[in-house]
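Structure, all two chains, one model.
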Amino acid sequence: GNSVTQMEGPVTLSEEAFLTINCTYTATGYPSLFWYVQYPGEGLQLLLKATKADDKGSNKGFEATYRKETTSFHLEKGSVQVSDSAVYFCALSDRIFKAAGNKLTFGGGTRVLVKP
Amino acid sequence: DADVTQTPRNRITKTGKRIMLECSQTKGHDRMYWYRQDPGLGLRLIYYSFDVKDINKGEISDGYSVSRQAQAKFSLSLESAIPNQTALYFCATSDPYGGSTDTQYFGPGTRLTVL
């Protein structure tokens, strides 16, 4: 079955530091990959996505590249801000289920705390 | 106004009680989902619905039931709540024409505590 593994947190950083959150996956078929972010007290919102190998998703200074050879989708940001403090979830959607809808499989989430 | 709303936002109940969590959306999406979030486990799918007449079990449906009253409304029920159902519950919607790459839009969540 499908699974997503991401590094456990919490990750504590100083403002302007470089952030990397590792994510690896196992899936049948050809998954699309997502990063969702959950700010305190809110629901999840899409941060970025990639639909095929070598695609790079980017948004709000965050980037992630779909690496089929290493089954990875690591999230990076060059200079974090206090406002980036949140929980980040890696997820996949397997295209085998295309006709059956977009069922997402989530990783466990990584809490990031950015200090001033 | 929020596109996906959930009520209540917080609920404390006792073991054995019946509880209903409600979700409404104004996005016009046919597909709706219920997830639960537990620390370190991410989100796990409870039920999903492709339209009013199409409801499917997710990976952890035992102890839960759902009702799709209209395109815009999808309710989750706990028939007899137990303490290990204490969790954060999220409703989500998606666009059926987005294929396998469609984005899911989440509500703010309901924090449920079963004593």
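The radius of gyration of chain A is 14 Å.
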